[in-house]
């Protein structure tokens, strides 16, 4: 049988239910994957809560590592026993087994562990496209990264620091400040105790930063805009505090001819070539020791609701995984 986590309606973590189902068979172009480790990401809570619409009933989760258990007709680049990982596609990673289009899967190098892959594919490839393609950050620049001690933030701080970028990180506690500094932030601002905009202006000689990376959303939107230098870019890639409120485009002009973008990973790995290039760039940074990622907490698959509760309550730092 196949233990899977599903929801029939949206709401809090308690809507997640563990169910038993038959192990599916792969169709043409698909593989059957036996999961070994499953990533838990903040975007999963958006689908569960209803912030992002999801046809119900549904599975949940979009990132995992595993072993190919069977292949469907027409699949030639993968075979039974291959270690693979993925990020994206239809919801349903919270399960022991699942079928997926073979085109979504990336072979794992021998030197990338399953639990590392399960907590780095989505967040790591997100960092890759944000800092290399949404806004191509250059050595010597200073950037502002909100939630610097979170899962995406920890990868970003390490990656950017390895490139010679000065990272100003925001955090919500002294413990998280210590984490962000240890990983490479040049300066850390505790938003609960300090005026973020004033501190950013102080640290940049009054000019502001060329780019702000903001996964928090509603609570940080205005401070993010006000921290930018003229013609700077606000990259809004998450809604941890709620969605950014509607605003008039004229606001961007008034604050210095600013740019605003709301990207998502799927549009940056839309082709097989883009997917493989993004994953390989991430694996290279891990191999080089520039990005070190290990799950900060492990939960049994059946305890997915507790993982969500801890994540939303900010009781965790870094990445979480579920173990089937």
UniProtKB/TrEMBL annotation:
Domain annotation Enoyl reductase (ER): ranges: 11-322
Presence of the UniProt keyword Zinc in the record: no
Molecular function per GO: mRNA 3'-UTR AU-rich region binding; NADPH binding; quinone reductase (NADPH) activity; zinc ion binding
Claim: Oxidoreductase is one of the keywords in the record: yes
Membrane-crossing segments per the record: none
A Pfam family assignment: ADH_N
GO CC term (a single one): cytosol
Annotated SUPFAM superfamilies: GroES-like, NAD(P)-binding Rossmann-fold domains
Segment forming the signal sequence: none
Domain of life the protein comes from: Bacteria
Keywords from the UniProt entry: NADP, Oxidoreductase
Descriptive protein name: NADPH:quinone reductase-like Zn-dependent oxidoreductase
Organism the protein comes from: Vogesella indigofera
């Amino acid at each position: 049988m196949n233990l899977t986590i599903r929801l029939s309606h949206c709401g809090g973590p308690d809507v997640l239910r563990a169910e038993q189902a038959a192990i599916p068979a792969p169709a043409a172009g698909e593989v059957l994957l036996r999961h070994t480790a499953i990533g838990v990401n903040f975007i999963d809570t958006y689908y569960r809560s209803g912030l992002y619409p999801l046809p119900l009933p549904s599975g949940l989760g979009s990132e995992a590592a595993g072993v190919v258990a069977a292949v469907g007709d027409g699949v030639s680049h993968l075979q039974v026993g291959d270690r693979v990982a993925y990020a994206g596609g239809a919801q349903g990673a919270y399960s022991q087994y699942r079928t997926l289009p073979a085109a979504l899967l990336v072979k794992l190098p021998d030197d990338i562990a399953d639990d590392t892959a399960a907590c780095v594919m989505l967040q790591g490839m997100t960092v890759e496209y944000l800092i290399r393609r949404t806004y191509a950050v250059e050595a010597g620049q200073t950037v502002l990264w909100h939630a610097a001690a979170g899962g995406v933030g920890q990868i970003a701080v390490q990656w950017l620091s390895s490139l010679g970028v000065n990272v100003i990180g925001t955090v919500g506690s002294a413990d998280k400040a210590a984490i962000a500094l240890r990983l490479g932030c040049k300066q850390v601002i505790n938003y609960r105790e300090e005026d973020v905009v004033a501190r950013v202006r102080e640290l940049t000689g009054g000019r502001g930063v060329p780019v702000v990376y903001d996964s928090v959303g509603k609570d940080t939107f205005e401070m993010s805009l006000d921290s930018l230098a003229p013609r700077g870019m606000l990259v809004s890639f998450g809604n941890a505090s709620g969605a950014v409120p509607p605003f008039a485009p004229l606001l961007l002009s008034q604050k210095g001819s600013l740019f605003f973008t709301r990207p998502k990973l799927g549009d940056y790995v839309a082709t097989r070539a883009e997917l493989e290039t993004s994953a390989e760039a991430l694996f290279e940074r891990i191999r080089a020791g520039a990005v070190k990622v290990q799950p900060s907490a492990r939960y049994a698959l059946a305890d997915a609701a507790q993982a969500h509760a801890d994540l939303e309550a900010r009781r965790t730092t870094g990445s979480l995984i579920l173990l089937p």
